[in-house]
Amino acid sequence: MIIDPSKLDSHSVYKLLIGSVVPRPIAWASTLSPEGVPNLAPYSFFTVASRNPPTLCVSVGERPSGEPFPKDTLRNIEETGEFVVNVVSFALSNAMHESSKDHPPGADEFEEAGLTAAPCEVVKVPRVGEASVSMECKLDRVVPIGADNLVLGRMVRFHIRDELYGGTGRIDVAGLDPLGRLAGNYTKVETIFELPLEDL
Ligand SMILES: Cc1cc2nc3c(=O)[nH]c(=O)nc-3n(C[C@H](O)[C@H](O)[C@H](O)COP(=O)(O)O)c2cc1C
After folding, report:
1. Tens digit of pLDDT for each residue in 166-179?
2. Position 72 in a domain
3. Are 129 and 59 in contact (CB under 8 A)?
4. Does the CB atom of residue 38 touch ligand 1 within 6 A?
5. What is the pLDDT of residue 102?
6. 13-31: average pLDDT
7. Is the CB of 110 inside a 6 Å radius of any atom of ligand 1?
8. Is residue 170 part of a domain?
9. 3 Cα: distance to centroid of ligand 1 (angstroms)
10. Is 71 in the pocket of ligand 1 (CB under 6 A)?
């Protein structure tokens, strides 16, 4: 099967993209509105954009019901120039799911999801206190790509739970237990190995 995406409607292309680019890490993005209301939402169009300077990128799409104004995350990042990427460990899955709901812009999504808004060091935006890893970011630029917007953020602070850092300079990924996004559903990191495998 060979498919030319230009021959499909955009929703069909989206379904093939999210089933092909898997598993995706989830940026659980916290932001602060200009009025000071904390906001939290998951974004799986997310990765590292550069090692040096350390830069993360998150792609924010249109609102699902097609309203002509941006999602709260994008609006807040553009207006305040700051965000935090929190890592979703498996134990926080339900809270992440709760925060993906379309709460009104004035709602404090930390409160709605029963999470602690913990202080950051450089940015005013709170991080998720329950997250094992959080990364403070300063907006580098927003690159519009079609109807989506790619947010690039300079990562200025790591917050890593002590047990996961362990003095080795590496993250204990098994201990982090990150949630991964598939098409519409999710996966856990359950098998970790090195290559080559002898019996493959
Ligand atoms: C696991 C997960 C991943 C998501 N990834 C994205 C994404 O990459 N881009 C996007 O625009 N929306 C994504 N969404 C939808 C947003 O989280 C959702 O539209 C949310 O209400 C946006 O909130 P906000 O207006 O507070 O930013 C995702 C939802 C879930 C549950």
Report:
1. 778 999 999 999 99
2. yes
3. no
4. no
5. 80
6. 98
7. no
8. yes
9. 27
10. yes
Task: Tell me the best of 39, 67, 71 to mutate to test the pocket of ligand 1, counting ligand atoms within 8 Å of each CB and taking the most.
Answer: 71
**pLDDT tens, 81-127?**
999 999 999 999 999 999 999 887 678 889 989 999 999 999 999 99
Question: Is residue 41 within 8 Å of 100, Cβ to Cβ?
Answer: yes
Atom from ligand 1 closest to the CA of residue 63: 19
Number of domains, the chain: 1
- Cis peptide bond N-terminal to 23, omega within 30: yes
- The answer, yes or no, to whether residue 71 has pLDDT greater than 80, is yes
Number of alpha helices (DSSP H) and beta strands (DSSP E) in the chain: 6, 11
The pLDDT-based confidence of 41 (bands split at 50, 70, 90) is: very high
Domain residues for 64?
23-181
In-domain check, residue 13:
no
43 lines ligand 1 (CB under 6 A): yes
Domain containing residue 140: CATH number = 2.30.110.10
Query: What is the mean predicted confidence (pLDDT) over 42-54?
Result: 98
Helix (H, G, I), strand (E, B) or coil at 136: strand
Buried b (16+ CB within 10 A) or exposed e, 29-39: bbbbbeeebbb
Using DSSP, state whether 143 is helix, strand or coil: strand
Read off the pTM.
0.97
Tell me the percentage of the chain whose pLDDT exceeds 90. Answer: 90
CA of 125 to the centre of ligand 1 (A): 18
- Shortest-distance Cα residue to atom 2 of ligand 1: 42
